[in-house]
Write a structure and sequence with these properties.
134 residues; alpha+beta; Nuclear Transport Factor 2, Chain: A; six-stranded mixed beta sheet; two-stranded antiparallel ribbon
């Protein structure tokens, strides 16, 4: 599948959903080498408060700090959709055994079988409408 992004051609050789799900599996296993292997050099992470972190090296440090702070963190998805290079994942973040599941929506933008952007959003009616989720 060829994708055009800012006048550049990118080719995903596999279903973008598989890349996003593998990326999440690396998050769930706290696998820094795996995350590193699937991030683009210009990887962007956007959290629920719209805080933006850019760059693969910066994000590797960010994931290491995050895993230290939240050693039991996991994501579980109930639904996965894709629209060209955008993957939309709906489910729950699990912070610890004591805390309830946290409903969320994630998006992943896939370029050349790598995650160029990983975002997390609150699971709200507004965000469901934004992503045309029924």
């Amino acid at each position: 599948m060829f994708l055009y992004y800012y006048n550049t051609i990118y080719m995903n050789t596999k279903d973008p959903k598989l890349t996003a799900l593998q990326f999440n599996e690396f998050i769930n296993r706290q696998d820094i080498k795996g995350l590193n292997s699937l991030m683009t050099q210009d990887h962007t992470f956007i959290d629920r408060e719209d805080e933006v972190t850019r760059g693969k090296d910066v994000m590797i440090k960010g994931w290491l700090e995050f895993f230290k702070s939240f050693p039991k963190y996991r994501n579980t998805f109930e639904r996965v959709d894709s629209r060209d290079d955008l993957v939309i994942l709906i489910g729950y973040a699990h912070w610890s055994k004591k805390e309830p599941h946290d409903p969320a929506i994630w998006t992943a933008r896939i370029k050349n079988d790598r995650v160029a952007e990983w975002c997390i959003y609150k699971d709200t009616k507004k965000n469901r409408k934004k992503f045309k989720i029924k």
